[in-house]
Amino acid sequence: MAELVLTKNFGVPDFHTIEGYIRCGGYEGLKKTLEEFTPDQVIEEVKKSNLRGLGGAGFSTGMKWSFVPKDSSKPKYLVINADEGEPGTFKDRYLLEKAPHMLIEGAVIAAYAVGIHTAYVYIRGEYVKPARILQNAIEEAYAHGFLGKNILGKGFDLDMIIHRGAGAYICGEETGLLESLEGKKGWPRLKPPFPAIVGLFKCPTVVNNVETLSQLPHIMKNGAAWFANICQGAPKCGGTRIFSVSGHVNRPGIYELPLTVTLREIIYDHAGGIPGGKKLKAVIPGGSSAPVLTADEIDVKMDFDSLMAAKTMGGSGGVIVMDEDTCMVKALYVLAKFYAHESCGQCTPCREGTGWIAKILYRLVHGDGRPGDPDTLKSVADNIAGNTICPFGDGAAWPVQSFVKKFRSEFEYHAKERKCDVLKT
Amino acid sequence: MPTLTIDGKEITVEKGTTIIQAAEKLGIEIPRYCYHPGLSIAGNCRMCLVEIEKSPKLQISCYTQAADGMVVHTTSEKVKAVRRAILEFLLINHPVDCPVCDQAGECWLQIYYMEHGLYNSRFMENKVRKHFKATPIGPWVNLDSERCILCSRCVRFTSEITKTYELALVNRGDHSEITIFPGKELNNKYSGNVVDICPVGALTDRDFRFQCRVWYLDKQESICPGCSRGCNIEIHYNVQRAHHAGGRRVLRLKPRFNPEVNKWWICDEGRYGYKFIDDKSRIQMPYLQEGEVLVETDWKVVLDKVASTLRSILTTYGTESIGVIASPQLTNEDLYLIRKLFVEDLRLPHVDFKVPVKEKGYEDDFLIKADKNPNTRGAEELGLGAKEGSLNVENMLEAAIAGRLKALYVFGHDLTNFFGEEKIKDIASRLELLVFQGSNLNPTGQYAHVILPSATYAEKDGTFTNFEGRVQRIYKAVEPLGESLPDWEIIVKLARFMGFSYPYQSAREIFKEIATVIPAFNGLSYKVIGNQGAKLATA
Predict the structure, then answer these.
(1) Chain A residues within an 8 Å CB radius of B175
(2) What ipTM is given for this predicted complex?
(3) Residues A162 and A275 in one domain
(4) Do residues B62 and B49 make contact, with C-beta atoms less than 8 angstroms apart?
(5) Percentage of chain A surpassing pLDDT 70?
């Protein structure tokens, strides 16, 4: 069994309390950071660790921090993205419920590194319980001097505020999130400027995912080299990540693994294989937006670069497994409905295209296909991808492009025969 | 100062210039919906995507700034394909009800479809139904949200220009919709502008709807006569289908861009203040009072009557016995001839143009001025205000009641408005001659002994001088109604009847003389004024 970093103490019943957390070695990374590192040294350490953003984009965390201007006369903000909304992804929920202090500790380290004194946690509205647990943890942290003024007597201040979302997937996109946090409609912003320069309230802002920040205490405690070494064979990656595994597997759940694990290992070794001994048909490796892989493509390593080479992406680490009895047309329809419902409606291709795709798929699933439908699906998705304000458009288009391309015959059957060859309906 | 290449043409532009602006300088028009130079950048329509070498994705040209060495293609196959795609997206849920849509003929969906679309329809699904079909959202504006392409120009106008925040975009995805805040209506002083900036048929003008197809309209540049700002406008008139709109010729006014005066905008009061031009109150014939009633007659009779009566009053009572009330509604050219005849040639001392108003007009810090006349500054510069020792309007009326004034020549004003109908009626009965020269009959005109019908601003050439001394041209859009004539032409004729020979054949000739005679106008000519105006030498 590989080394566990984030989930090691998930079995400790009171790990979510400050007592449990400290008993397991919590806040030692922060102590070490404040005692032994200058802010710039923290950024260097995190760069060396190869920690990459685990919300979906996989961008170097240390690099992201270094874009924040050092001499800004404006306040700077840390915004913690806890708006976990990607279908098939539920890792942040566990981190918030089981290890809220790990997030707080990581946030203080990040804030110290960048010179930030206010942190907002934008938490998914449906995450009522995680929000409550985190609020308790924040209050404990204030009481114990890990938040507030003069943290650990080292002269560093940080306030942390929870903001609950109202149920929009698009508010997980970092600039949509910032708009929402400012009290506006969650419409993603035109970029550049990026949030590091112009973010929350027009001030320099670091936006980091829950899991990303939760890695920081361990990196600071054990060193960048230790973290980078966990991922041997993937030179630009470091550490572990939590894979959320769902769908047709015997043991769905979260699995913390080094990024060099293969998709096959996740499905068969960790998640216990496919129920009933059925054959694997397809896997989405990184949350619903990631292009689908066929059963022949699962020997790919799960680090960001290997998945990109396989023309898909690491994304949020949500692994969705589909067995041989899955109708790919119906599966895509489920995703398409989601994207049509969640498109913010700001820019034309995504607003109109996602609805169009969902309508075509509805017809195909309900026995009303037309011969040209697979081509139209592909063409509409092609016209969305790359032409939108934010990555949502790509995320809505990629599943369509990959499903139609890799399972073309199923779509053709629905279109021509107006029924399903898989479900025999 | 970055230098970039667009479609093979090189141009150097100011730092911060966007590609769409740089292309415009080269005469390359990149299609756009959400972009409007007077509003913030929304970047949402994606119609202006262009190809930039070394950039993996197409970029929106309304937002992307020009950079040194940038190579841009606006007509590459990739760009053409994406334009078709965007148009297709914009039209899939659009009702395509052009035959019954008032925007048809000036709709950017139609224009760009013909220029950049021309694909075959392949949308086989049901269209999204929305809430607003032909719904009035204010006194002047109608909303059809199924025709809306959600460019957000109107929303940005109400939040950035008027700061009245009546409109918003609600809902998500293809159910997104423009809406008005509950309990509000789009009823600000500038609401009509949202119709102009709406690129499609979503927002239409309740005043203009179904009056005339836009392809029957002709256009003429002009200046709004509604206040002393002098907003630049276009007069849209229909003479091709005379039976439309109940025979009205002028059917709408549109703002005309002038960065120094009104930018892209005009106020609703100005926009909808054109109705008098074809109104029933227009005076189409000269009238002469016979007994108690006004009787239609011809120009020769009235001019002869006015000239001979003025002559005899002058001979009997002298110059002190005649008052002239000129109007700041008139052009500089009109006023110059009034000055020439009455002040210079007849040497009348009592000339004024300022009639008091009951209450101060509405004014804001954007366009609307309290002075509701387009040429007060011009009248002042031409010396038509009451001078020291001469009677102003109020004193002229007192003099008339006292019997010292025998004749009063009124240009357009309704004196009853401020002084009351009884007083004017009384004055009319005491005077030997009350001349009313104007375009529309008002209570003052009804008491006149002679009525001379004049043309409106839409029916003549000339210039107005706005409050800050900017001289701007108006042009004849339609012929003077009936027998009416431009005021300056009436004065030329009257002068002839009084024994003076005025050589002027056109407003241009008069202006030439103004520019030499009146120091403030030195250096100006119609050419110098152009279509954006020019400031007085003294301004």
Answers:
(1) 345
(2) 0.96
(3) no
(4) no
(5) 100
Q: Are residues B248 and B453 in contact, defined by beta-carbon separation less than 8 angstroms?
A: no
By the 10 Å C-beta count (0-12 exposed, 13-18 middle, 19+ buried), B429 is classed as exposed
Is B123 an 8 Å CB contact of chain A?
yes
Tell whether A265 and A119 lie within a shared domain.
no
The answer to whether residues A246 and A381 belong to one domain is no
Where a domain ends, among A323, A341, A369? A323
In what side-by-side order are the strands of the sheet with B534-535? B462-465, B470-474, B534-535
Task: For residue range B29-69, list pLDDT tens digits in order.
Answer: 999 999 999 999 999 999 999 999 999 999 999 999 999 99
CB–CB contact A386 B58 (8 Å): yes
CB contact under 8 A, B172 and A344: yes
CA distance B145 to B56: 35
| Chain B residues within 8 A of A353 when measuring between CB atoms | 89
CB spacing of A351 vs B171 below 8 angstroms: no
Q: Are B480 and B306 in contact (CB under 8 A)?
A: no
A30 with A123, same domain?
Answer: yes
Query: Is the CB of residue B109 less than 8 Å from the CB of residue B91?
Result: yes
Instruction: Identify the CATH number of the domain in which residue A397 sits.
Output: 1.20.1440.230
Q: Which of A205, A229, A253 is the last residue of a domain?
A: A229
Q: Do A266 and A252 have their domain in common?
A: yes
CB-nearest to A359 from B58, B82, B125 is B125
Reported confidence tier of residue A1, pLDDT bands at 50, 70, 90: very low
A209 and A66 both lie in a single domain: yes
What pTM was computed for the model? 0.95
Residue B47 in contact with partner chain A when CB distance is under 8 A: yes
- Provide the domain limits for residue A333: 328-417
Report the distance separating Cα B402 and Cα B209, nearest Å: 53
- C-alpha span between A336 and A401 (Å, rounded): 12
